[in-house]
User: What shape does this take?
Amino acid sequence: MKVCVFTLGCKTNYYESQQIVWQLTQKGHQVTTKFADCDVVIINSCAVTKEAEKKSRQAIARARAKSPNAKVIVVGCASEKDSAQFDGNLTVGNVQKTDVINYLDKEGNVKLDFPTTYQKDCPALQGRTRAYVKIQEGCNNFCTYCIVPYLRGRSRSKLVEDVVNEVKNIVAEEIVITGIDISQYGKDTNQSLEQLFFELSRVTKARIRLGSLEPRAITKDLLFALSRLNFCPHFHLSLQSGCDATLKRMNRHYTTEEYLSAVNEIRKVFPDCAITCDVIVGFSGETDEEFQKTVDFVKKCGFADIHVFPYSKREGTVAYKWQDVDGIIKKQRADALARVKEQLKSQYLNAQIGKVSSVLLEQRKDGFMQGYTPQYVKVYTSGGQSGKTVTVKIDGLYKDGVKATEVKQ
Assistant: This one.
């Protein structure tokens, strides 16, 4: 059969889709990411926002238009949250989604209770440029705005030895460590991120890149363990707000002072690092003064980039019944913070000019080879080959990154 596997949402979803692809290819099926002329379309959905769920429904419509006779299967967070919105299509929740190959001839809704431990899983089909390794599932934080713990269950960690064995078989130049909240890794297995990274340093020389971390995960031991790896010094450190009162309403488990301390500790060990974050604007009860505190705080931190999100109420969360901030005000704040983001990003990119850096090249487009530095700065350069790491000197700003010239070794 020809099967389309279409992915929405996070890096963890991408990894899980590659697990589905691996199983399909093992059974001899032809796999594509395009909707046209397929026998089966599997949509790995997202539900972190209303817009994400909408995109999942829109994907079904596009699949039906391109392959009107195909069987459509919706898996993942949106089907876990509300299978009824996909009525008429097979839906599979998060627990069984990587086993969807066993349900190709089924109908209805497959949804099981969340396990209490990390379940042994199948390999994921990995590329030679960048590979993803999932080390953890679920979340224990229960932030008042977030639906994810209800859709993924409690935190469960893959054993260190299982992660190491998976990494041993990866030939990619770069490995991205991912999970729903990797900061909680090992707390349920009497292991730790530090232990994992020490073990990985023994078995791979690939570049190691991390997914999002909580500020409380930043310790001297963790930073030392990372320094032993071929580590990409880009830290995506969850922020959400630069105001302590807002953080408390969000049920975030740190203060801005603690967050700034984590930023400073990172820069002591990795002075050339990039630190990025997410910020939610217009959360329930956010005043003009609270928003201004966030603006001032992100400037103080000197982020390399910021992902700005207007608050989206999610039914089933604690904050769902709280009074919402007016939509126009949300947009104004999002636009204002986006301007600050561009200023900070420009400052960071300007500081890279003249530096020499390694770049993992990924694709040729519009006359340039494009790739990323360890700090996740997008680089445009004239030469090189996809999947290869080259050394470049950064010449200046260009589009959404920098232009650079290859330095011959």
